[in-house]
Amino acid sequence: MGCRVVRRVSRARPAAVAQTWFPGLNPLLDDRPPALLLREGDLPDVGPKVLAAARQFAAVG
């Protein structure tokens, strides 16, 4: 799932931006980092949320 999320962001933004986005706080995820959620959360629960946040970031920035 992590690779899928990074690919989604990297297609729309430079690789350095994706590297910063993944461990950074995210307001769409209650100010939690996507990487932390994927590592510590229940993947069926947090995976779709992180992917939605990645889609939003890729589309809007």
Could you walk me through the main structural features you see in this protein, from its secondary elements to its overall organization?
The protein is mostly helical and 61 residues long. The protein has one domain (15-60). The chain has helices at residues 2-12, 15-21, 34-40, 43-60.
Summarize the model shown.
The chain is mainly α and 61 residues long. The protein has helices at residues 2-12, 15-21, 34-40, 43-60. The protein is globular, with a radius of gyration of 10 Å.
Secondary-structure map:
Elements: H1 2-12, H2 15-21, H3 34-40, H4 43-60
Helix pairs in contact: 1-2, 1-4, 3-4
Strand-residue proportion: under 5%
Q: Please give the radius of gyration in angstroms.
A: 10 Å
Cα-to-Cα separation, first versus last residue = 20 Å
Question: Which residues form runs of ≥5 with pLDDT under 50?
Answer: none
Helix content: over 70%
Shape, please? globular
| Count of domains | 1
Task: List how many beta strands DSSP finds.
Answer: 0
Mean pLDDT score: 92
> What characterizes the major β-sheet?
none
